[in-house]
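Worked example 4.2. Below are the chains of a multi-component assembly; read each line carefully before continuing.
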Amino acid sequence: MSAEPTVPPVPPVVLDAMGGDHGPAETVAGAVAARRAYQVPVTLVGDEPRVLDELRRHGAVGEIPVVHAHDAVPMAERGAAAATLATSSLAVGCELVGRGAGRAFVSAGSTGAVVSCAVRGIGRRSGVLRPALAVALPSLAGGASVLVDAGATADPSPAMVAQFALLGVGYARAVLGRTDPAVGLLSIGSEPGKGNRLTREAAVLLAASPVRFHGAIEGHDVLAGIVDVIVTDGFTGNVVLKNVEGCVRTALAMVARAGIASPERLAEVARRYDPETHGGAALLGLRGTVVVAHGSSRAATIARACVVAGALAGHDPRAGTGTITAEPVS
Amino acid sequence: MSAEPTVPPVPPVVLDAMGGDHGPAETVAGAVAARRAYQVPVTLVGDEPRVLDELRRHGAVGEIPVVHAHDAVPMAERGAAAATLATSSLAVGCELVGRGAGRAFVSAGSTGAVVSCAVRGIGRRSGVLRPALAVALPSLAGGASVLVDAGATADPSPAMVAQFALLGVGYARAVLGRTDPAVGLLSIGSEPGKGNRLTREAAVLLAASPVRFHGAIEGHDVLAGIVDVIVTDGFTGNVVLKNVEGCVRTALAMVARAGIASPERLAEVARRYDPETHGGAALLGLRGTVVVAHGSSRAATIARACVVAGALAGHDPRAGTGTITAEPVS
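Applying the procedure described above to all two chains together yields the following structure tokens:
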């Protein structure tokens, strides 16, 4: 019998080994990096023989536990039937988190399938009306703002939008390290009466809510870093997130085409400001933490998503203070 | 008595001399350029003594007619009371077009005030449910797509969105010179069932409408030039338009900050792809043509807006073929 006090082990981050365009090779490499470089304990879920093969390449068999799941959810199959999903790495992983065997779930699978499995397997936190996706967007000044909802709930009510702001404030504290995050409502003009029905009603609720409400911001403010939390409905948020990616890519291609900067140096700039390197999208409002990494994620991005998931899981989203920033990994 | 047949004069484009951050100096210079460089007849509306002063600097007194209007609408006063607006250059100009004394109205004033004056003074075309703003966005390939609605109607019905597509097709023919424009519906995924309530219902109407419907496009496709017309509600459209401007500006600033291209060469690239240089926003669906130029417009952009207004006014928006392209003026 040992005289040492027993420290209960930290539950691991559960990682979907099969998700994404490059699973399981890059997901397993990401799990190894998360454990070795960032000391985040990870459990892999997926097709056991294939996952073990990949672990063997890193000399990590036994170091990282594997839970078998029969099926992978194909990236294209976003509206996959519940029957197909039930035996998938997504469903098995979410179920592990739902019963407390993991503290967070990370997948590079399709956002729609992850949201659907997570709501079913983990469940909403008491009082939360709808989950919301949070994505950290880089700002020119070098920091980041969190965009929420980036695509989980396409038609929210004003009360849901006001709640997304609270969830976003929790993210800004836990992941971005902000102590008193300012919230901006994405709209089309800051004068009273501007906006659509949803933003006009949400603005009234936000002004009366406990968040530090900056008021309306517009499309050109999204990368300006003037607020910590950009709150919007999941339709507008998803359009804007993808528009940011497309416009930055296009603008850099314009510079390349003009022949005034080398493609290699431009690729470096693109990487530095890529939202992907900022930890993936976090699904907020559930009884466990869920992070959705981009489908094209490589090992470094997967590792980063595991770190963000661990940070979010380690905090009460309404009270925590941050320990990491959203600086890119590369 | 002359033996020559009498050709009725082409009604002029009516230009708000007082609108924008740089009126009347830059607006009057723009009117002179539109007339002299592009052979577009223009009538100026505004504070007569000040407008005549500016015309004198160009030796254009007598060459360009002036209609006096007592008030200018301040840029900030978007929700200006009807009483203030009635004697404004906006109201007087729209009234001229409404009674056929001008074929189009151009202003760099606030979009909200222009839309409100134009609907009152010019009126909707028969059968049109709501007006929509159309803005030509540059694409990397060198062409342009038209985004409609870019901010006139924040909460449209699905039927209105389907009608915006028809209006956008007219614009793509008249201004972009496309013979059979393809229409994409801005949404958050192209699979059936994706999107919000509005886009799901609008997609059904668009599939049954006489436009060439490409289906859904996403935020990263906005500058990709894969369709000629990008149709959306006025809230999402305005957020996206401003997001494009902000992201392109931010991406170029990232390159400048990285020190890998000279600021002068980057400014050239920015100018070449600036939506502003593509002719301003056209308010579609009225009984006369209205073009809203950006508030910061200088003479060249004002002249370009007059050319676009003339082109739109010279065509039946449902049948016309284009004579000009959306190439930048500078």
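Take a moment to check your reading of the output against the notes. Chain B has a mean pLDDT of 86. Chain B touches chain A through 58 residues (CB under 8 Å).
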